[in-house]
């Protein structure tokens, strides 16, 4: 608890993982809505194809973005371990 209160333990990586799943769900739902609307609004094949591309690439883009955010926290953890290791010598 002390590490948490002194900001030595980060909670943001856990929050980023939750946001990843929310982002994946959001892109999948949006893609399915776009694909369904292509049938009802007369959007045609282009709108359906756009929804299909969003269905495939949307979660990948969300994953890449979240991995980039997590990377900063992993770098911080690694640098902290190096600092602590050098302090022990």
Would you kindly provide a written description of the structure presented here, covering whatever features stand out?
The chain is an all-alpha fold and 89 residues long. It has one domain. The protein is 88% helix and 0% strand. The protein is built from three helices and no strands. It has helices at residues 2-5, 12-40, 44-88.
How many distinct domains?
A: 1
Helix content range: over 70%
Overall structural class, as computed from helix and strand content, comes to mainly alpha
Q: How would you sum up the major sheet?
A: none
The total beta strand count reads 0
H-E order: HHH
| Gyration radius from CA atoms, angstroms | 20 Å
Low-confidence stretches: none
Q: What's the helix count? A: 3
Mean pLDDT: 90
Q: What portion of residues belong to β-strands?
A: under 5%
Termini, distance in Å?
A: 27 Å
Shape: elongated
